[in-house]
Amino acid sequence: MAMQVGGGGDEDAPMMDINTTPLIDVMLVLIIMLIITIPIQTHAVKMNMPVGPSSPPPKPPEIVRIDVDFDGTIGWNGAIVADRAELENKLAMVAAMPDQPEVHLRPNKLVSYKVVAMVMASAQRLGVTKIGLVGNEQFLN
Q: What single string gives the DSSP state of each residue in 109-141?
């Protein structure tokens, strides 16, 4: 009884199996090179922080409140303005300031539009640059 070693049959036949060991070795080397060349990720946020003494916070802006009542009466910070000339004098003083205060115009829901437009036109003509309408939520309904 003899034992046959090998594929049997024809010794000159080509081998049909692919040797994958060198391919796996090359793949592992490529993976290691990739891991080495990737930069290390740092989980830090780079911030430019101020150096030296900090400046004091700016002072809050001065606010001038102009109220227009339902009958056309105009109020300046709670005091009633007698006529248009007095209103324009006060607006001219505001416009002459180097750092103009904010002018908050708060019209009543029932006031005529021409009174509000007159106040806004006077402020624009005299050079008031910081003016805004306040209390618009009353007009939603």
A: TTS-HHHHHHHHHHHHHHT---EEE--GGGG--
Q: Using CA atoms, how far apart are residues 28 and 34, in angstroms rounded to an integer?
A: 10
| All structural domains of the chain with their residue ranges | 63-136
Side chain identity, residue 130: K
- What's the burial of 8, exposed, middle or buried (CB within 10 Å: 0-12/13-18/19+)? exposed
Amino acid at 32: I
pLDDT tens digit sequence for 44-102: 778 887 777 777 878 888 899 999 999 989 999 999 998 999 999 999 999 999 889 99
CATH number for domain 63-136, candidates 3.30.420.270, 2.60.40.10, 3.50.50.100, 1.10.260.40: 3.30.420.270
Q: What is the pTM of this model?
A: 0.57
